[in-house]
Amino acid sequence: MEKEMKIGIYPGSFDPVTKGHLDIIERSSKMVDKLIVAVLKNSSKSPLFTVEERVSMLKEITKDIPNVEIDSFSGLLVDFAEANNATIIVRGLRAVTDFEYELQMSQTNRIMDENVDTIFLTTSLEYAYLSSSTVKEVAIYGGDVSKFVPSYVVDKIKDKINALNNGGHNE
Ligand code: COA
After folding, report:
1. Under a CB-based contact definition with an 8 Å cutoff, are residues 59 and 72 in contact?
2. Rounded Cα–Cα distance for residues 118 and 89 (Å)
3. CA distance 9 to 86
4. 21 Cβ inside 6 Å of ligand 1
5. What is the predicted pLDDT for the residue at 1?
6. Are the beta carbons of 161 and 135 closer than 8 angstroms?
7. What does the DSSP 8-state code read for residue 47?
8. Which terminus of the chain has a lower count of CB atoms within 10 Å, N or C?
9. Could you give phi then psi for residue 37, rounded to 5 degrees?
10. Closest residue (by CA) to atom 28 of ligand 1?
11. Sequence-separated (6 or more) residues with CB below 8 Å from residue 160
12. For 125-161, how does the pLDDT look when each residue is reduced to its tens digit (9 = 90+)?
């Protein structure tokens, strides 16, 4: 009998993707046949990067991982999972403060779709403190973010902040 493909989804805002996210992508991609990294559209957060820009950055930094695909989604995560035949949701746990929110999300998702399970990876210690908001704050005040995000993303953040400072605006 043919083995069913195990498809996982790693959802998030990725505004922007950090080394902490990349760590989770690299590790979880080894646990599934295909990992879809899915950027949430219409998040209530006001983003620095458009969804297209976030997708494009993710594509660039994961281009050497063959079983990773990048996509975006709106609406319910379980609907996106079902549409992509995914049965696993991957989330990273940085600290105990993430736990309550993540538990609630995974239980809600499981009630909505019993075919989908969430697996949690503990974020590598060196990235446990990281968040996209912190990265943006450091960058906006001129700090060096090269320890927090891949070098490709460092350049994109610089370009974006320069464009905003020169009167551009984000959609
Ligand atoms: N390394 C670095 N940062 C990390 C991280 C890691 N390993 N894991 C999480 N983070 C940070 C993110 O950078 C982000 O930081 P920010 O708040 O400063 O932007 C923060 O943790 C939140 O993580 P994120 O992964 O972006 O989650 P989210 O809360 O924005 O989105 C979804 C979570 C997309 C899974 C959820 O909102 C969702 O499924 N939405 C769809 C609607 C739905 O189905 N709702 C029902 C579910 S109950």
Report:
1. no
2. 4
3. 7
4. yes
5. 56
6. no
7. -
8. N
9. -90, 120
10. 12
11. 48, 49, 53, 170
12. 889 889 999 999 999 999 999 999 999 999 999 999 9
Distance of CA 54 to the CA centre of its chain: 9
pLDDT at 168 over 80: no
Q: Which amino acid is at 157?
A: I
Q: Which residue's CA is the nearest one to ligand 1's atom 19? A: 132
Asked whether 127 lines ligand 1 (CB < 6 A), one says: yes
CA contacts within 13 A on the Cβ side of 17: 30
Do the beta carbons of residue 145 and residue 52 sit within 8 Å?
no
The vertex-163 CA angle with 61 and 48, nearest 5°, equals 55
Paired strand residues for 72: 39
Q: How confident is the model at residue 44 (pLDDT cuts 50, 70, 90)?
A: confident
How many whole angstroms separate alpha carbon 158 and alpha carbon 154? Answer: 6
Residue 11 CA to ligand 1 centre (angstroms): 7
In residues, how long is the chain?
Answer: 171
Query: In this predicted model, what pLDDT tens digit does every residue of 81-118 receive, in sequence order?
Result: 999 999 999 999 988 888 999 999 999 999 999 999 99
